[in-house]
Design goal:
The protein has 308 residues and is α/β, with parallel strands linked by helices. The protein has 10 helices and 7 strands.
């Protein structure tokens, strides 16, 4: 039993470690883009699919967002922390929204090579690259460099803090992205929202797994102590049985030593009486059968002649 539980725990830990390296990816556009949707996808496959989509130059502006230090859990309540992203990725777009297509991949295995998309946009669409680093102090939006199109805006957002202000930091980053979209000369854009984990997040997840393993070890010690208590209890019962075997029998008449009218014996008497009554009725029924001697005589008359 313990071996089975250890194997199950090992499989669970392997599955948990398998999802430690995954990051979410989002994309939305004001153009109709055909992209495969999947809950889990490898980074090379997703990179090639997005590159194929971008090779047709569907927009005038491309915003390549880089958000470090996050995971899919940070976007589970995106309506509060990132309202713009939640609205753009909503399946039912409102009438006033310019977004016509979106893509969400919650778990991406590996690292996305965004440089491949940059090369495709430069080669196929002839875009000019503008870098916007919002993580630095005074990192504003260069409005003069937003025209003419086509343009590729590489937007680097700061990593959110690990404390209680994490949701507020994500909301600030979402507001900065909304400002960039509002300042575009034309509302013909495609947003590629890439994310990455921080080393602190990886260490935190590993510490959590270590804590689960420690809890399991503690549970194993408790079970071991329970087994020891059970053995001690069995030893006490064995000693009691041995002491009982050494006791001398009670002297006296037979009915004082044994009990003959127990509930089980009483029920046996009732069942036996019922069976005897059934047997009596059956024997009485068979004995009451009466057969005349004429029934054994040969048939005579016209009926006997016909049968001959």
């Amino acid at each position: 039993m313990r071996l089975f539980r250890q194997c199950a725990l090992a499989l669970a830990v392997e599955c948990a470690h398998g999802y430690l390296d995954t990051t979410p990816f989002f994309m939305f556009s004001t153009s109709e883009l055909l992209a495969t949707t999947s809950h889990i996808q490898s980074a090379p496959l997703l990179t090639s699919d997005i590159a194929l989509t971008l090779s047709s130059c569907p927009s005038d502006y491309y915003i390549l967002v880089s958000q470090p230090g996050v995971s899919a859990k940070d976007y589970s309540k995106s309506r509060r922390s990132t309202p713009l992203l939640a609205k753009a990725l909503s399946p039912s777009q409102s009438q006033g929204s310019a977004v016509r297509s979106s893509l969400t991949v919650p778990d991406v295995f590996g690292r996305l090579e965004s440089s491949t998309w940059v090369d495709v946009l430069k080669t196929k669409c002839g875009v000019s690259v503008v870098s916007i680093d919002a993580s630095r102090e005074g990192g504003g939006i260069p409005t003069k460099e937003l025209s003419p199109s086509p343009r590729l805006l590489e937007l680097i957002l700061p990593a959110p803090s690990a404390g209680s202000n994490r949701a507020s930091d994500l909301s600030s980053n979402d507001a900065f992205l909304a400002s960039v979209l509002d300042l575009l000369p034309t509302q013909n854009y495609t947003v590629l929202y890439t994310t990455s984990r921080s080393q602190d997040g990886m260490l935190t997840a590993q510490e959590a797994d270590g804590k689960e393993a420690a809890e399991y070890d503690m549970d194993s010690q408790i079970q071991e102590s329970m087994h020891l208590d059970l053995r001690r209890d069995l030893g006490v019962h064995a000693g009691a049985n041995t002491a009982g075997n050494n006791q001398t029998m009670i002297e006296g008449p037979l009915f004082d030593k044994y009990q003959f009218f127990t509930p089980g014996i009483f029920m046996g008497y009732l069942v036996g009486l019922l069976l005897l009554l059934i047997l009596y009725v059956a024997v009485s029924g068979v004995a009451s059968l009466q057969v005349t001697y004429a029934a054994f005589d040969k048939e005579q008359g016209q009926l006997a002649t016909k049968k001959q």
